[in-house]
């Protein structure tokens, strides 16, 4: 009985650890090329470098994603509450036209990038993308403090950003 219970505990612990928070991006994800809104290619590492020294909130989203659209009012409230942070949007749209239309339609303020291949592309795989919207928070030193947040986690994201202010 004890060995069965121990096996169950180990199983749940290993499943929980597979979705663990990371504190840095893998070399694979940093080298992935994204498109800028003017259709230039930029490695993800360079996009991050542009935000160096500031707290950064990354939203991985798509214009076709209902949960992404539903979460936008909450994201805008977060932006209003935390103007000290920078905001980066990485689109998982299938075509750039829809991505660019989505930015305008939803009046998204921040830096914008497009990940070729969408959710199943190389960039999505390199950040363990399994759901959108997905939020990642990076502190001003470049350390990931939240690696996996979803649309239900705005209160926790607000608390994290409040802690990073001090």
Automatic annotation (TrEMBL):
SUPFAM superfamilies: Thioredoxin-like (SSF52833). Residues 24-166 form the Thioredoxin domain. GO terms for biological process: cytochrome complex assembly. It is found in: Cell envelope. It comes from the Bacteria. PROSITE patterns: PROKAR_LIPOPROTEIN, THIOREDOXIN_2. GO terms for molecular function: oxidoreductase activity. The keyword Oxidoreductase does not apply. Pfam families: Redoxin (PF08534). Keywords: Cytochrome c-type biogenesis, Disulfide bond, Redox-active center. InterPro entries: Redoxin (IPR013740), Thioredoxin-like_sf (IPR036249), Thioredoxin_domain (IPR013766), Thioredoxin_ResA/DsbE_sf (IPR050553). The keyword Disulfide bond applies. One of its GO terms (cellular component) is cell envelope. This is TlpA family protein disulfide reductase. The lineage of its organism: Bacteria, Pseudomonadati, Bacteroidota, Flavobacteriia, Flavobacteriales.
